[in-house]
Amino acid sequence: MNTLIKTPEAIEKLRVSARLAAEALEMITPHVKPGVTTDELNQICHDYITNEQQAFPSSLGYNGFPKSMCTSINHVVCHGIPSDRVLKNGDILNIDITVLKDGYHGDTSKMFLIGKVSVLAERLVRVTQECLYRGIAVVKPGCTLGDIGAAIQQHAHANRFSVVREYCGHGIGENMHEDPQILHYGIAGQGMALQEGMTFTIEPMINAGKAAVKLLSDDWTVVTKDHSLSAQWEHIVLVTKDGHEVLTRRSEEPVL
Ligand code: MF3
Ligand code: CO
Ligand code: CO
Fold first, then answer.
1. Residue of 99, 107, 222 to mutate, ligand 1, most atoms within 8 A of C-beta
2. How many angstroms separate the alpha carbon of residue 33 from the centre of ligand 1?
3. Which DSSP category does 53 fall into?
């Protein structure tokens, strides 16, 4: 079965799951402050998703992942594991939440500035969100995957930042990760053309230093090789007849 193009019924279910993931991020936001551990944030999210949303945190047990969300601090690129690490003034943090409801996955992440952060950290976080928004902006039927990657890469490079190449966005639906792969770099006009009904994430990981990453011995945590700061933002995008719709938009964001 072709899962690249979703049926209207599938899109409605995905819409619900995406909204739940976005709402979990909104719920956790006031809890994210200096002094809290990432384990405490994980527990709050786990309880909210299972009890309030009557959904399941897709990360838990995914290929053996031990927690209900990913928490990636400072030079951690992605897939950080919640722990007794206390958030402190100056940290930057990504929280990435995936929920499974009625057979469909919603997946979204945002960055948090803990207390007062450096000018560089603030700029990296802002530019990375702009990279996501620029990638989203080009999405419409007929645009290519290369157009998305090129838009992201161009903005990162214009700001002297680098794009992580080892991890990418992904189709999403009944599986957390489906085709197509959404690279966050590329050449305009290249790659598959988008069609109405496709649903996928865009989730650029942008480094303040070099692009190279390495995997820690826990087999999950991905860090920058040069220990430079890294940021990431993630949304699910639906290709519509005339453009796109962001299914994980939070109320703090404009219509993208
Ligand atoms: N949410 C991640 C993504 O955006 C996947 C996390 S899988 C986990 O694709 F096992 F690391 F949680
Ligand atoms: Co994702
Ligand atoms: Co995610």
1. 107
2. 23
3. S
Q: What is the pLDDT of residue 3?
A: 86
CA atoms within 13 A on the CB side of 29: 13
- Is it the case that residue 2 has pLDDT exceeding 90? no
User: Which pLDDT belongs to residue 135?
Assistant: 98
The answer to whether 148 and 181 have CB atoms below 8 angstroms apart is: no
CA of 105 to the centre of ligand 2 (A): 10
Q: Is 203 in the pocket of ligand 1 (CB under 6 A)?
A: yes
CB atoms within 10 A of CB 2: 7
Task: Give yes or no for residue 37 having a pLDDT over 70.
Answer: yes
Kindly state if the Cβ of 234 falls inside 6 Å of ligand 1.
yes
Identify residue 87 by its one-letter amino acid code: L
CA 105/CA 98 separation, integer angstroms? 7
pLDDT digits (tens, 9 = 90+) for 142-187: 999 999 999 999 999 999 999 999 999 999 999 999 999 999 999 9
Domains and CATH numbers, the chain: 2-246 (3.90.230.10)
Name which residue sits closest to atom 11 of ligand 1, judged by CA: 79
131 has a pLDDT exceeding 60: yes
For a mutational test of ligand 1's pocket, the pick from 58, 184, 218, i.e. the residue with the most ligand atoms closer than 8 A to its C-beta, is 58
Shortest-distance Cα residue to atom 3 of ligand 1: 107
CB 173 within 8 A of CB 200: no
